[in-house]
Amino acid sequence: MARTSLLVFLKIVMILICAGWVSLWLLKPTELWTRKWKTAEQSTMTTAFRYNGLDFVVYTFPVIALAIIGFIYLELKPKEPRSRQRRSSNTALSNPLIVNSYVGVLTGIEILAVSLFVLFLAWTFYVRISNDFKKMIPNKSMKLNMSQFKLFRLATRCGLLAEACLALLLLPILRGMAIFRLLGIQFEASVRYHVWLGTAMLFFATLHGAGTFLIWGIKHCIQDQMWKWQQTGRIYLAGEIALVTGLVIWITSLPQIRRKQFEIFYYTHHLYAVFLLFFLFHTGDRHFYMVFPGIFLFGLDKLLRIIQSRPETCILSARIFPCKVVELILPKDPRLKYTPTSVIFMKIPSISKFQWHSFTVTSNSSIDDHTMSVIIKCEGWWTSSLYNIIQTEVDSDNDQMKCIPVAIEGPYGPASLDFLRYDSLLLVAGGIGVTPFLSILREIDSAQSSGTKGFPTKIHLIYVVKKSQDMCLLNPILPLLLKQKGEQLHLKVKVFVTQEKQSGATVRELLNEYSQVETVNFSTKCSNYAIHGLESFLWRAAIAGFSSIMFLLLLSFFNHAFLHPGKKASKQKNSSSETDLFLICSFTIAIICSALVAVIFRRRNLREGIPSISEKQGKKMKPSSMEMSASLEGHEIHFGGRPNFQDIFSKFPNETGGSDIGVLACGPETMKESLASLCQLSSQGIRTSAQRKKPYFNFHSLTFTL
């Protein structure tokens, strides 16, 4: 009872903090806020905190406090009950509402959130421009007429819209310090919000820069203004460098470049540090504190992830499938538990010392206490290099296998398991997109074997592949496919081979042919550490609070030591470059101190007990396969075409008998859009009690990599 009351209290506090921070952004453009805020800043100028300490507490700390309280809430929150929950009217908002090839699949909740954000931007722009046009004080130095002045102010206020987008830009891509987890949003789903915000930010920033340059060009003063220091100590050149840097990051992140030249995308994205630094020099610390929450949490998250990936572990073994796919087996701390569809980030220094790649975990922590596995399709440069390393070891005659060290971040998994809530499941995978479903099926089978109730028992897996040999990816769930009808889990697989004509082969024959794998066990002499995952939520809350307090104390120290709080505020207007430097130094030192605390804490945990790694080096296993004497007549295979999803949807309720159906899709975007459209058509509206028996399809999009 006490825990329940505390959880309710924490939830109310989080709602109030969130509402207060949003209200702050709504009031900030108004004249009332400007007058009150100037008075508040003046009152702090004689203190050690000064105005920048007040800015941090009011503008930045609410989001950090939200993260701290959120972590405490998640730590105290009991695990989701292993039972199907009753469907609510909110399901209609979480189902696809718009399906478009340009914007993808949008739910009602996403459309509502985007609409509110657009209204906020419109409100901010309108209030700022209205106040500017009322004053009508043209820039005398450039001798602008009224129309030129209006255009100049319009361009200037577009910069504030870019600032609002930047304030949210980094929040969706936080991993260990993720606050989106409070909303039940998975990391891979929130990445696209980062893309949307980044695109909007650069759109407004480009309008801001282009409009300013247009006015300068009309007045023939581009060179003079570019190098001119403003009265507040700012220089326009910093803004131009930030804009160019942001455009380079955006262009190299386009799908056409990111998919074909991942290295270019990866390395240019690290220019974010240059962008943020020159943004600070261009706008000043007063504007920077508005966008600082995401930057603060991102910096802390980045360092903690680096610490988590140390010390490196190693690959225990690898399995090579016929379709140029490898499964890596990694050591895991038995205490580490994760949810199905979790993602890890992996770096192999022998291939690249800087590149991290994400992969879906295909193993299940309820079954595999000491190991974790990922399946990798070897197509690009990095994955092909990994494949060549493993294949070289298989082909070599050396009995002593090499040791391959790897660094691991994660696993990062969903906060809730939505697929547990349905009567039946329709899983649709394309190619390597089957990997998230391997962990889902293992989780359900493990739970039902242990007697846990509330799981869907009737599941259909629609697997679309180009070649029949790609069916080898079903190898990890062969034991499930071979189960007899008397078992609790009723799994039916329908394979569609799109680029091969009818061969007459059955599912059993093809699985038997392509289930042969080569296994190689590597040495573990280079590392004796297992993956032990993220620290607890309480620990993350403590480290976030510690770094915030450290930052504020350091900022106060620099203010007191160098800016002499006793002086009048009017004499301190030209010290903007100093305050920028103090902000950078305080942030850097606070993050480093937090990192040192994290390192000490991690070393102490490692001393208490290092999970042992079983030694299996020097053994090469011959190709092996599972003898399939059991019947596989219930499964189907089709050649020469794609699945007719409309026909599958119409037959599925009769085949499974469930009225509440979860549709999980992982694969090409076009496939997801087709499924989302069918879910949208089949499940329009909110069901009443009289319509409970009508099939209701609930769409969920998954991803196997980021």
UniProtKB/TrEMBL annotation:
Main location: membrane
Any Pfam family the entry gives: FAD_binding_8
Molecular functions per Gene Ontology: ferric-chelate reductase activity
Bilayer topology annotation: Multi-pass membrane protein
Protein name: FAD-binding FR-type domain-containing protein
Annotated transmembrane regions: 7-27, 56-76, 97-126, 154-174, 195-215, 235-252, 264-281, 537-561, 581-601
Organism encoding this protein: Davidia involucrata
UniProt xrefs under InterPro entries: FAD-bd_8, FAD-bd_FR_type, Fe3_Rdtase_TM_dom, Fe_red_NAD-bd_6, FNR_nucleotide-bd, RBOH/FRE
Keywords: Membrane, Oxidoreductase, Transmembrane, Transmembrane helix
Cellular component, GO annotation: plasma membrane
